[in-house]
């Protein structure tokens, strides 16, 4: 439930840099929603002269590649975005369409358990994505989970989740890290 400050700032910066809404332009045609390096590249499309437009694209695409090389801009594909959404599942983050997620798919995640331990008598699960989850109770009917078991996390109320292991009845739990 706790997101370390450095991680929170990184996620917020990525949200601002990578997930800008559709380009909005002011009366001068300037695009303020995109990072500057992308808005300059987008402005090249408006040039009517082919030679000017090509020179603009060459100049601004070079700036974009340079910014990417310096780590100032990161472009990710759909598969990387999906992997990032899965790795962040269970954290309380602002309601933004970060990494192209849709709200319906962000309510449930299915994966595999890679490790099981107990903390204060409650099961602690590590999953394939590397996250650790803590169950809030170990009811008598719950068979002991083990590595390789399938697990499903479904959003519940107040930041908790229902954790279903091998299709058993769900137990409340929360993400530890």
Low-confidence stretches: 1-25
Gyration radius (Cα, Å) is 22 Å
Give the SSE string. HHHHEEEEEE
CATH architectural name of the domain at 107-175:
Beta Barrel
The largest sheet, given as strand count, sense and whether it forms a barrel, is:
6 strands, antiparallel, barrel
Keywords: Signal
Organism: Novosphingobium indicum
Protein name: Lipoprotein
Features of the shown structure:
six-stranded antiparallel beta barrel; signal; 30% helix; alpha+beta
Helices and strands in order:
Elements: H1 5-18, H2 36-43, H3 50-69, H4 78-88, E1 108-119, E2 122-127, E3 132-135, E4 150-155, E5 161-165, E6 171-175
Antiparallel strand pairs: 1-2, 1-4, 2-3, 3-6, 4-5, 5-6
Description:
The chain is α+β, with helices and mostly antiparallel strands and 177 residues long. It has a domain at 107-175: OB fold (Dihydrolipoamide Acetyltransferase, E2P) (Beta Barrel). The chain has four helices and six strands, in the order H-H-H-H-E-E-E-E-E-E. Strands 1-2-3-6-5-4 form a six-stranded antiparallel β-barrel. Strand 5 (161-165) and strand 6 (171-175) form a beta hairpin. Residues 1-24 form the signal peptide. It comes from Novosphingobium indicum. Keywords: Signal.
């Amino acid at each position: 439930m706790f997101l370390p400050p450095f991680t929170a700032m990184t996620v917020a910066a990525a949200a601002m840099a990578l997930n800008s809404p559709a380009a909005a332009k002011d009366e001068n045609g300037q695009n303020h929603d995109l990072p500057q390096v992308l808005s300059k590249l987008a402005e090249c499309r408006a040039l009517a002269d082919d030679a000017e437009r090509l020179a603009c694209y060459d100049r601004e695409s070079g700036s974009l590649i340079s910014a990417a090389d310096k780590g100032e801009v990161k472009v990710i594909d759909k598969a990387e975005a999906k992997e990032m959404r899965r790795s962040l599942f269970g954290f309380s983050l602002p309601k933004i369409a970060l990494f192209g997620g849709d709200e319906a798919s962000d309510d449930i995640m299915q994966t595999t358990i890679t490790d099981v331990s107990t903390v204060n008598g409650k099961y602690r699960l590590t999953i394939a994505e590397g996250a650790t989850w803590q169950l809030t109770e170990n009811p008598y009917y719950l068979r002991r989970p083990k590595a390789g078991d399938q697990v499903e996390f479904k959003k519940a109320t107040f930041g908790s989740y229902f954790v279903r292991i091998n299709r058993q009845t769900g137990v409340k739990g929360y993400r530890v890290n």
